[in-house]
Amino acid sequence: MDSWLPLLDIFMNSLSPETEASLWLQSSFNSSSNPSISISTSTASFISLLNQPIESVVIDSSSSSSLSSSIHGKRRFMWLQTLPDVVQARILSFLTYEHAKFNKQDLSKLARDMLFDATEVNFWVKKAAHQLLDVVSDSNYKWVSCLNLDSEEKEFEGNFGEAPKWLKDVASANDSILPWLPISVDELNMKIPHTQCENDEDMVMEVEESEDGNCESVGTQPKLVHREIDPIDHETEESAACLQMRIKNLESSLKAVELVDDIRQLCLKRKVDSLTVLGLIEPWNADDEVVPILLSRLLDGNEQDFGWTSNILCSVVLPKFLILEKPAPRVLVTATIEYCKVHHKAAVYALLFPLILRKEGINNPICDVITRIVKECLHPAQVSAFCQKLLCEEEDENNYVCLPCHQSLLSRELVWTEPLFNLFQNIFNHNVHLTQDSVDQLVSHTLESSRRFSKSLKFANFLLCFVGKCGPMLKVHKAALSEAVGSTSSFLTKSILSKLASI
Q1: What share of the chain is helix, strand, coil (3-state, %, to 5)?
Q2: In the chain, N or C terminus with fewer CB closer than 10 Å?
Q3: Cα gap 1→54, rounded to integer Å
Q4: What's the pLDDT tens digit per position in 177-213?
Q5: In this model, does residue 153 exceed pLDDT 50?
Q6: DSSP symbols for 105-143
């Protein structure tokens, strides 16, 4: 044991234990410096040390009684297993590196004992033991020659595509609809819902819904789809009304924390219709200083639940921005951006889509908020996909989340205002590359708006940026755009026409 203490010290404290241990082994058992020591004998003694049995008392940690009653029994361990996990992994890695100097059978036995021991083995120890076993195991393919593969080749090919025996047995015992499908015709008919549609126009498009989210279709002419839910019971209504009053009369941040916890518990209790419950509570009436507490504490570990994260955003923040007429408070914008940095999808469907579809169109303060969210929270590829959904009327993909009481504030089509064109200019300046479909739709809206904004400097700045950023995709629209730009009368008109001519 004493002769191996320097080696164990290396495994305990060295930053590169395998290399140092190999150098120590080479110098300690060099035949020229110490001819009386045999490497095979010495390395065998090291393996013997690692395999040395140690008897230990196992304590049942699940027992809460006295020590005497919690003793599970005595058990034998290898001495290697008494070392810290990191040291075990280093020793096994060293043995893998220097396996040529050790007996293969001893190393194989050691690795197998570590892998198949009844006690729980650390992940890295198990990985090192696997590597050691792979290195010392012999790969012998002579057994293949005894198989008559040629004679059985046809049989293997014939059986390869067949169903397993247990499926055949179940299918034979039932009147199955398919030979390999253990389900009867009656069972299948019971599980298929029967729907009747007079024609394709009457069919309602599918919308993406979560367990507790109400998603509304978005596009140039979105269809609002409502999912039927159970009515809210009287007890829930009373609880929501009480929480609504508490929101309006908050006195301190401590009270706000308690209030948010109560809101979360009530919504999780009615998870299927949590958006309806939030509509009764009206959390958007809380002061702006309370918004960070609402956004953070309402989650409570449900960060990956798109429906819940969207419901929080559209009920706490969206109503405040929909009625925004002056620059938004810093605390509100900061809390929203921090939330949207983590929940990109909720930011798109529960905030950006509804804001841009505002009935009066977006104004400058709303444009500033959307621009900050786009720049600080979303990847340019996400912004490009968002613009594609917004502009190209892909009704099967466009959805937004909004409370029913706020749907009257939204339009069924985009309202093109100067700030909306300014928003697209900001998107271009953020190095977002739009698809050809998006560019074509944007050209169409630009042509329709050219006379209405003929004297608008913001519209002219958008055109100049649009032509500069998307020039190669505007070749097919060159003549139409030139005519539209010619109808404007800003001092940028000549510059825009010059850029168009160079396309």
Answers
A1: 65, 5, 30
A2: N
A3: 14
A4: 455 555 555 555 555 444 444 444 443 333 344 344 4
A5: no
A6: HHHHHHHHHHHS-SS---HHHHHHHHHHHHHHS----GG
